[in-house]
Amino acid sequence: MPVRHVSRVRALYRRILLLHRVLPPDLKALGDQYVKDEFRRHKTVGSDEAERFLQEWEAYAAVLWQQANENRQNSTEKACFGISLPEERLNDFRDEQIGQLQELMQEATKPNRQFSITESRKPKF
Q: Which portions of the sequence form the region Disordered (predicted)?
């Protein structure tokens, strides 16, 4: 990643791992490993790709922060995390990314998981 992104990357990486602390243990472990792998995989990308990468992860962090706050306020209900991925967005993904999504979905939907993936409300940015 370009030098001008380094401090922004580090801060975002730390922020995401901190946000993951509110997740159920299985989902936290899955999320932490995925974040670490993705940030490592994108260490050497060019400036344009680095900017897109950061924007997507910043949006993820904002949604997770919002959902964590909503779940805290609705503590009697089962915690819900995640958002739907519109099918048209998949057209923007490379084959490698589609494969990663499939692996992530398989891991997240294994039996006996401690979390649920549900349709969510639109994020309030």
A: 104-125
